[in-house]
Automatic annotation (TrEMBL), chain A:
Name listed for the protein in its UniProt record: Indolepyruvate oxidoreductase subunit IorA
InterPro entries cross-referenced by the UniProt entry: 4Fe4S_Fe-S-bd, 4Fe4S_Fe_S_CS, HACL1-like, IorA, PFOR_II, Pyrv_Fd/Flavodoxin_OxRdtase_N, THDP-binding, TPP_enzyme_TPP-bd
Cofactor field: [4Fe-4S] cluster
Name of the top EC class for this enzyme: oxidoreductase
Subunit structure: Heterodimer of the IorA and IorB subunits.
Keyword Transcription regulation carried by entry: no
Alphabetical GO biological process terms: small molecule metabolic process
Binding site for [4Fe-4S] cluster 1: 584, 589, 592, 627
SUPFAM superfamilies (alphabetical): 4Fe-4S ferredoxins, Thiamin diphosphate-binding fold (THDP-binding), TK C-terminal domain-like
Keyword Iron-sulfur: yes
Alphabetical UniProt keywords: 4Fe-4S, Electron transport, Iron, Iron-sulfur, Metal-binding, Oxidoreductase, Transport
TrEMBL record, chain B:
Domain Pyruvate/ketoisovalerate oxidoreductase catalytic: 16-199
Domain of life: Bacteria
Name of a matching Pfam family: POR
Gene Ontology MF term list: oxidoreductase activity, acting on the aldehyde or oxo group of donors
Keywords: Oxidoreductase
The protein's name: Indolepyruvate oxidoreductase
Taxonomic lineage from the root: Bacteria, Pseudomonadati, Thermodesulfobacteriota, Desulfarculia, Desulfarculales
Record-linked InterPro entries: IorB_Oxidoreductase, Pyrv/ketoisovalerate_OxRed_cat, Pyrv_flavodox_OxRed_cen
Length: 639, 202
């Protein structure tokens, strides 16, 4: 862990990332088993735990998807161990199939514990959506807690393990980008002796949710007991005067934003703030008691009005039923996006008439005028030397050759950048992990309904193992007409190069069986073609070839290691790439810099001709085959 | 040296890959050791390479603040790229903000492709000056290139920050932190980069 001891060493205060604080708390709780599939902002949890795994005797793995990760962690808990599964918000949807059952069964009678960490991404900083996982706790009949800062994250996850053990159920800990990727000072607790937990799966008993109705009742009874505990939990705190007429109820990131806004408006002595960290089961009595003296309640949270709805529900039928509960549903806080100090200031301003003095009008006018004139966006694109740029170039050529009438379904990974303005905009539809093949298998049946154009689905190697395999099997079985392209760059590049089943090593960096995409696909009994994306003509030809075959499922593996993987393995550039200025047609053509758009290629502002940025060029040579005038030349580099 | 305001809001920004997170955390660790409450906010993900990235540091003697800086609330912006200084000013600028910018530009991909224009460099500099109470510029990348390692631009900029005496941290503390977190083989180069940075402003 990248922790740094401070001068006050006796108190063991260290500076940690939120995800590192969660790891530290889990280690202090004696976690034995941890599993996850990478997803921003959750990935650092398993990464950091993997560094501790060997020395502390913990099993740490990158599972092929979140459901598998939760099932592994669930089994470890049933065997009497302490387990942790981590995921981002989208991953929870994958895992819920198992988790909804696991709440009904409990964790067996071997004294195990299980914590499921879900890291939401309010504002969708690095996600396709900003879905709010807090709803899912109620749906899954599982308790959920939410830390309000990094220090609390360490303490709270420890508590979650205790709660899990005591009440024989897994516990959700909800994190969010500003916690997972925020850093602060954390006071550490003692680490237990590094020793492996003893596994004792009880072979005599069945752990299954049938009869579902009976177990449902038991799960509800368990939640009722936990609710009593949450009513007086130390994680819920009240700040401010006892007789406050305006009560702010905040959770997660809303707590620091709310406290800061109150401080900026000088309202700390007038307005109360109830920090809620136990979200489900909801501590209704606590809220009712605090609401008694209030004339108005404002709820600060992100993303959905979860707490807001639960507060209204709690007050319904009580003497505080007429107290207005304001927030998202009343329009005081926007319904989408993360909570910020400014949103808290706005909401409090609307209720109190107090405003914060920001920059003066003259400054703001000047700022607006200058930024309107000068500020341009950076855009998102693939790295120099990324094989995906070449793959999509080849796809673009192949699609054009088909007269443009090809339906392309995409998936989740670096190749998703295709849909941004700096990509090739080839993908027509893009959804969840594995959706490429599922969508294509539907489109691949459309010939029965009079639509008979080529269908191409695209996924990466990590995604292939995560959720494409079942869809692929289904497409083959149901004889869908489609081309499935695997962009195999030997990496889970987008989230930071975590190991997966195809790379030959595991989460700890130890050698592991390498499951080969090509062999696996061949075993499914469909034609498999392999091409190199950097051989753009060859890749285009291969794509056109598999599209022309017309019937059934055909697989094309475009195989080339991620440039960042290559750089690590081989410091030498494969080629020196130069632009022959005599052959370059400059703006007449512009194919390389304005269409291929590798960031290492630029248009010379004076001559308009192409130029290579030596510092950025990885020497892949892909651009050479893009130039219609053969003006980009590659020279072998002596090793 | 104490902070001009409490909380003191520092932004370290640049383009993905320039090392802004490294210097933000280094500064954060030292301030934490010196008894300040501290929170750092970062987002990482799709903007890692070539995109706009920034870290926000909330520094206080009173209590730990949340990681998000209120709009118009920056006290100091330290930037590895001048266009990014302007970008952060657009959200967090105010009449009293101090800025320290690397002079080296990093072109967005749209500019390389000839589809967008990077603002005129002198004009950009004047704009930053106009929007800052005090605007410092340092050729951090040029110095790093002279040292044979463009990668240490961030450390040169950190040196300039020390030279300008904008934060209550000392050269000695920075070196101590480096000694415990950097690979030993890279220490000498980074000390040099730091020294050259200090000299540009001192």
């Amino acid at each position: 862990m990248s922790e740094q001891k401070t001068k006050t060493a006796e108190t063991q205060k260290v500076f940690l990332l939120g995800n590192e604080a969660l790891v530290r708390g889990a280690l202090e709780a004696g976690v034995d088993y941890a599993s996850a599939y990478p997803g921003t902002p959750s990935s650092e949890i398993i990464e950091r735990l993997s560094h501790e795994a060997k020395k502390r005797g913990i099993h740490v793995e990158w599972s092929s998807n979140e459901k598998v990760a939760c099932e592994g962690a669930g089994a470890a808990a049933v065997a009497g161990l302490g387990s942790l599964a981590a995921m981002k918000n989208a991953g929870l949807a994958v895992a819920l199939d198992f988790l909804t059952h696991c709440s009904l069964t409990g964790l067996g009678d071997q004294g195990g514990s299980m914590v499921v960490v879900v890291c939401d991404d309010p504002d969708a900083h690095s996600s396709g959506d900003e879905t709010d996982s807090r709803w899912q706790a109620r749906f899954a009949y599982a308790p959920m807690l939410e830390p309000t800062n990094v220090a609390e994250a360490r303490e709270m996850i420890r508590y979650c393990f205790d709660l899990s053990r005591e009440y024989d159920c897994y516990v959700f800990l909800r994190s969010y980008t500003r916690l997972s990727h925020g850093s602060s000072i954390v006071e550490l607790g003692p680490l237990p002796e590094a020793k492996k937990g003893q596994a004792h799966p009880d072979c005599s008993a069945a752990v299954n949710p049938y009869l579902g109705k009976v177990h449902h009742v038991m799960a509800l009874e368990r939640l009722a007991k936990i609710k009593e505990v949450f009513e007086t939990s130390k994680f819920n705190e009240y700040f401010g005067p006892e007789d406050a007429e305006l009560l702010v109820i905040a959770s997660g990131n809303g707590v620091s934003c709310g406290r800061e806004a109150l401080e900026m408006l000088g309202l700390e002595d007038q307005v109360g703030l109830l920090k809620l960290a136990t979200l489900w089961p909801f501590p209704t009595e606590l809220v009712r008691a605090r609401a008694k003296q209030a004339k108005q309640i404002l709820v600060l949270e992100e993303v959905d009005p979860v707490v807001e709805v639960l507060v209204k529900d709690a007050l319904n039928g009580t003497e505080a039923a007429s107290v207005p509960v304001l927030g998202k549903e009343s329009g005081h806080v926007p319904m989408a996006g993360e909570i910020t100090p400014d949103r808290a200031l706005d909401a409090l301003g609307k209720l109190t008439g107090k405003t914060h003095q920001g920059p003066g009008e003259a400054y703001q006018a000047k700022l607006k005028q200058i930024t309107d004139e000068m500020l341009i966006s950076r855009g998102l694109t693939w790295c120099p030397g990324c094989p995906h740029r070449a793959s999509f170039w080849a796809l673009d050529k192949a699609v054009k050759a088909e007269g443009g009438e090809v339906y392309v379904t995409g998936d989740i990974g670096c190749y998703t950048l295709d849909v941004f303005p700096e990509g090739k905009c080839q993908m027509n539809m893009l959804h969840a992990m594995g959706s490429s093949i599922g969508l294509a298998s539907g489109l691949g049946q459309m010939h029965k309904f009079g639509w008979d154009k080529p269908v191409v689905s695209i996924c990466g190697d990590s995604t292939f193992y995560h959720a494409v395999l079942p869809g692929l099997v289904s497409a083959i079985y149901n004889q869908a007409n489609l081309v499935h392209v695997v962009l195999d760059n030997s990496a889970t590049a987008m989230t930071g190069f975590q190991a997966h089943a195809g790379v030959g090593y595991n989460a700890m960096g130890e050698a592991a069986p390498k499951i080969d995409v090509v062999k696996l696909c061949e075993a499914l009994g469909v034609p498999v073609t392999v091409a190199d994306p950097f051989d753009i003509r060859g890749a285009t030809k291969a794509l056109r070839g598999v599209m022309a075959e017309g019937q059934g499922v055909r697989i094309l593996v475009l195989r080339r290691a991620c440039e960042l993987v290559r750089m690590k393995a081989d410091k030498n550039k494969p080629y020196k790439v130069v632009v022959n200025q005599d052959k370059c047609k400059g703006e007449e053509c512009g194919t390389c810099y304005s269409k291929f758009r590798c960031p290492a290629l630029l248009k010379d502002p004076v001559t308009g001709k192409a130029s290579i940025r030596e510092d950025a060029c990885p020497g892949c040579g892909a651009c050479a085959s893009v130039c219609p005038f053969k003006a980009i030349e590659i020279q072998e580099v002596a090793k | 040296m104490s902070l001009a305001t409490d909380p003191y809001n520092l932004i370290v920004c640049g383009v993905g890959g320039q090392g802004n997170i490294l210097i933000a955390r280094l500064i954060g660790r030292i301030l934490a050791e010196n008894g300040y409450h501290l929170a750092i906010g970062e987002t990482f993900g799709a903007a890692q390479r070539g995109g706009s990235v920034f870290s926000s540091l909330r520094i206080s003697k009173k209590h730990a603040y949340g990681p998000l800086i209120p709009k118009g609330g920056a006290n100091l912006i330290v930037s590895l790229e001048p266009l990014e200084t302007l970008r952060l000013l657009s959200n967090f600028g105010n009449e009293n903000v101090v800025t320290l910018s690397n002079t080296q530009t990093a072109m967005p991909v749209g500019v390389l492709a000839g589809r967008a224009e990077y603002p005129d460099v002198d004009k950009l500099r004047r704009a930053i000056q106009e929007l800052s109470a005090k605007a410092l510029f340092t050729p951090a990348t040029d110095i790093a290139v002279e040292l044979g390692a463009p990668i240490v631009s961030n450390i040169v900029l950190l040196g300039a920050l020390l030279g300008a005496k904008l934060l209550p941290i000392s050269e000695e503390e920075v070196k101590q932190d480096m000694a415990s977190t950097f690979p030993p083989s890279k220490l000498e180069l980074n000390y040099q980069a730091l020294q050259r940075g200090i000299e540009t402003v001192a």
